[in-house]
Amino acid sequence: MFLTISTFGDQERPATDLGFLLHKHPDRSQTFATSHGTAHVFYPEATAARCTAALLLEVDPVALVRRGRGKGRGGSPDAALSQYVNDRPYAASSLLAVALSTVFKSALHGVCNARPERAAQPLPLRIEVPAVPARGGAALVEKLFAPLGWTGVQAQPVPLDARFPEWGDSRYVQLVLEGELRLEEALRQLYVLLPVLDDAKHYWVSPDEVDKLLRAGEGWLPAHPEQKLITSRYLARRWGLTRQATERLELARLAASDDITVEEIDNAVAEETGEAEERPTPLAVQRRDAILAALRDAGASRVLDLGCGQGQLVQALLKDVRFREIVGVDVSMRALAIASRRLGLERMGERQAARVALWQGSLTYTDKRLTGYDAAVLSEVIEHLDLPRLPALEYAVFGAARPGTVVVTTPNVEYNVRWESLPAGRVRHGDHRFEWTREEFRTWADSVAERHGYGVGFLPVGPDDPEVGPPTQMAVFTRKGPQDTRSTKTTKTMKSTTNTSESAAGAVAEKKEGEVA
Q: What is the pLDDT of residue 67?
């Protein structure tokens, strides 16, 4: 899969400025790993008069099959018919578009600190792609690129076999674009239109593809005469996403025609419908933010999310590059499958995918895989265990795995009276085996910290009511000694921990018989 970008210049404005704009030095050949192969960038020629940058993408067919989705889910129809022998390694498609956005990311966003004035100016460009699958033929290529400012659009059909001209032409064309455009504009157009011409994508088209389309299409897609076709094909004909994108594009067109921002139109509509009032931040979001803040304060970079559920916290951790290794653990395979889809593991780039793993495991059993991590999180987990099983979880996490920091959150039962929709005496979730008061949680946390050589601090999550406290209570445990140290007291009391915890559970249950939670 091959693409070249050429520009022309003189001594005052040398063509080799292309190297600054692409952030790739003309004197060096560079290689980049992608999720489906390897991308190479090199310069066949680099003079003041003419400079050409080439992008060569080597696709690994095996990786494509393993990470792809297949027919019917936004994947390539060819790959579905013949998984290992197809045109994907050779014909420009969404694979090349993704490589463009990865290798030329800064240029795609118009960023060039070394030559900002050149990035803002149109350049004489010539772009060549030897093999482009064009479902619609050369006529469609002309319809897509001609309205975008290209003075020359050549789409030469490739014959099925030059030795047998009677067989006719294939669906591939040799594409040549010539004109004066900003490099950023040209790259954004290619990013969108290459998969549109192919009418297929090698990965599952999720809702975030709408945002990608609107970002790449800013300035040219809202007024494009083939907007409907472009939007539909780019979003793999997913009707709901296409409608959403079309509505937002129309909003952008109206804003441009009135010379105002889209935000001004949105704000006006919100005020008229009474939807401009600020909504409170959901408790789940506040809880994740509090956990992330605690992990950052602890300086953690390798984190375990124990009882990760559907992966909301793992997703939030991935957005922060300081967390370089994230492992989600849950006993439910169904929850892990949902988490995998939420994270988009099958279409995630190699670097990002190397940061995250999802493991099946029970938190009440020791697991050697969990040792050596900077921090572990038990977010809304302990209340789902029967009280007699808490000692097993306690030892598995604090006694065996022993991360440097452990963050535990659990509901504060005292706050339940503030939930108008929660009947008196009921817990917040049908699967909750218990919900603790602030005193009960502190008593448990202090005893765990003492037994296993940790210090512990407590923080409120959510509004801290002066009478009943916050809706969620959080404990942050910090290991006092080296990772492999076990306190003598911990070893001696391991066998008695179960009896102690069961006694505490009995006391909690006895106390609650006469209370309304």
A: 54
Q: CA-CA distances (angstroms) from residue 391 to 89, 370, 503?
A: 55, 17, 12
Q: How confident is the model at residue 255 (pLDDT cuts 50, 70, 90)?
A: low
Tell me the HSE value of 309 on the side-chain side, using a 13 A CA sphere.
10
Alpha carbon 393 to its chain's center: 31
- The arrangement of strands across the sheet holding 152-159 comes to 30-34, 37-46, 50-59, 2-8, 123-133, 169-181, 152-159
What are the pLDDT digits (tens) for 63-72? Answer: 666 555 433 3
Bridge partners of residue 42, in order along the sequence: 54
Would you call 406 helix, strand, or coil by DSSP?
A: strand
Alpha carbon 98 to its chain's center: 15
- Average per-residue pLDDT for the chain: 84
What is the reported pLDDT for 427?
81
pTM (2 d.p.) = 0.52
Choose among 44, 60, 56: nearest CA to 6.
Answer: 44
Work out the average pLDDT over 401-429: 86
**Residue 282 DSSP class:** P
Cα–chain center distance at 291: 19
Rounded to the nearest 10°, the torsion over CA 18, 19, 20, 24 is 140
The closest of 439, 237, 475, 208 to 344, measured between CA atoms, is 208
